[in-house]
Amino acid sequence: MHEVKLALLGVLIAANAAADECTKIEVPAKLEHRSSHDAKIPDIVDYGEPQLDGFYGKLAQVARTKQGTLRIGIYGDSNWTNDRTAGEIRRRLQLAYGDAGHGFVAFGIPWGWYHHQNLQHGTTGTWDVWNIATMEVRDKLYGFAGITAESSQPGATAWVETAKAGEPVGTSVSLIEVWYLARPKGGTFEVVIDKDSKDKIDTAAAAPELKVLTYKVPDGPHRLTVKVTKGSVRLFGAVFERDKPGVIVDGIGINALSAATMTRMDPANQSAGLARRNYDLLIDATGTNMWAAQAHPKLIVKHALQWRAALPKSSILVWSAPDFISEGTTSSTPRMKQNSRERIQGSKDAKVAFWDQYEMLGGYGSMPKWHKDRWDTPDGVHMGPPLSAYIGERFVYTVLADLAKRVEKAPRLGCR
């Protein structure tokens, strides 16, 4: 009996010691992506201090104890629809602290370049795809990610699959969700995972409502297919996650997204989705498409309030937009200097955090330099793969440097 008690005590001591482990925060000694145009990397400024405490507390827990899941949602414009910058952030955080799954991806393909990194997805057959910025739908029921797809063609499919073998992250999933709209006169669809039919769903309902189907599968590579069987079916997206500690980054990229267009969603529909995703950090990385100087700060406050209503404990961070080249010239657009000031003012008014991407890239006159080196795209507005990676790496560096400073002040941050 004494031996059993001593053995149990040893197990408890070992378990407590493991739970009490509190690793250091490793900030990269040097950056991989460098250029002759490197500028000073600005700190994140919290105008709602201690508004970021919740995010850094969860990040510290995941980073230092390898427990829990950190969730980040990033709303961006056409520089984000290809998921390059979000993908860079996702990969770096997941490789460092754990791959907890890809997160949310819209079923519809609104633009040919809408493609998430380290994930495979697409459609077959005929689909109408709407979004809040460039192709609006009358009922405003886009889901929280601002994109919705509808088909009435029997046999049309929307599919999502884990990343190809050998990719650094995204190759496994153990929890799959299907997000769709239940509504009057809704049609039916079939859910297939790999080659197994899991469900036949009737979307008819008395009133429009977000519905979510959840399926647990063995952790590993899987393919989800949603097939229309009868009537008209409206889909929002899929979630791929894992029952493992780590990081999830939802890249929500929508062409022409701005502080103005973000307020076009049905509030209840948006709030239901945000509440379910339960982000620790929400990022507004728009700004390029916002030209109404007087309205800009007010609109930032408006959508920040909408986010807070859905997720009162979530931290919120606004980025300034990058410089870009005026159409038909080789010079920067002066408007973006004012745009950056507006986003700072909006962040102050909304009492949220701010990161100055504009100055990080070199401020006014920076895009012609990046353009000369071909780090952007030929239009002088959008980021090419090198510049997307550059931005993503520097944001992760900034976050980790800030976290390290917080750990210096509170050595047990994130630990039991």
Describe the protein's architecture and organization.
By secondary structure, this protein is α+β, with helices and mostly antiparallel strands. 30% of the residues lie in helices and 26% in strands. The chain contains nine helices and 17 strands. The strands form three sheets. It has a six-stranded mixed beta sheet with strand order 1-17-16-15-2-14, with helices on both faces. Strands 3, 5, 6, 8, 11 and 13 form a six-stranded antiparallel beta sheet that branches. Strands 4-7-12-9-10 form a five-stranded antiparallel beta sheet, with no helix packed on it. Strand 15 (281-285), helix 5 (296-310) and strand 16 (315-319) form a beta-alpha-beta unit. Helix 4 crosses helix 5 and helix 5 crosses helix 6 (335-350). The chain is globular. 48% of the residues are buried. Mean pLDDT is 92; it is low at 1-19.
Write the layout of secondary structure elements.
Layout: H1 2-20, E1 45-46, H2 53-65, E2 69-76, H3 84-97, E3 103-106, E4 119-124, E5 128-131, E6 147-151, E7 157-162, E8 173-182, E9 188-193, E10 196-202, E11 209-220, E12 223-230, E13 233-241, E14 246-253, H4 267-277, E15 281-285, H5 296-310, E16 315-319, H6 335-350, E17 353-355, H7 357-360, H8 366-372, H9 385-409
Parallel strand pairs: 2-14, 2-15, 15-16, 16-17
Antiparallel strand pairs: 1-17, 3-13, 4-7, 5-6, 6-13, 7-12, 8-11, 8-13, 9-10, 9-12
Helix pairs in contact: 3-9, 4-5, 5-6
